[in-house]
Write a structure and sequence with these properties.
Elements: E1 3-7, E2 10-12, E3 18-25, E4 34-39, E5 46-51, E6 58-60, E7 68-73, E8 78-83, E9 92-98, E10 101-102, E11 106-110
């Protein structure tokens, strides 16, 4: 049974940082590119960051380049999203995904 469990969201002030975690199980983690998506109310889901199977090749949305870092540990079946210099427009539900699977999401709210 595929499971993706996100954690680490919360309320943070503009300029602050959060680290999202995703624990994966039930599938061959090392063979899949992993993604972080986000969706804000009234907006389409957006690909935020992507990390390939070798944990080296990454891709980011232009809106988060230089502020967010995606990483993974293939031995632990974990993926993270380090978010720095957060802005109010980063407020969204953040989802860990691969292929057609998605976790339940973790809410990130950036507000003073």
């Amino acid at each position: 049974q595929v499971q993706l469990v996100e954690s680490g969201g919360g309320l943070v002030q503009p300029g602050g940082s959060l680290r999202l975690s995703c624990a994966a199980s039930g599938f061959p983690f090392t063979t899949y590119t992993m993604n972080w998506y986000r969706q804000a109310p009234g907006r389409e889901r957006e690909l935020v960051a992507q990390n390939s199977t070798n944990a080296v090749n990454t891709r980011y949305a232009d809106s988060v380049k230089g502020r967010f870092t995606i990483s993974r540990d293939n031995a632990k079946n974990m993926i993270w999203l380090q978010m720095n210099s957060l802005k109010p427009e980063d407020t969204a539900m953040y989802y860990c995904t691969f292929s057609r699977y998605s976790g339940q999401g973790t809410q990130v709210t950036v507000s003073s």
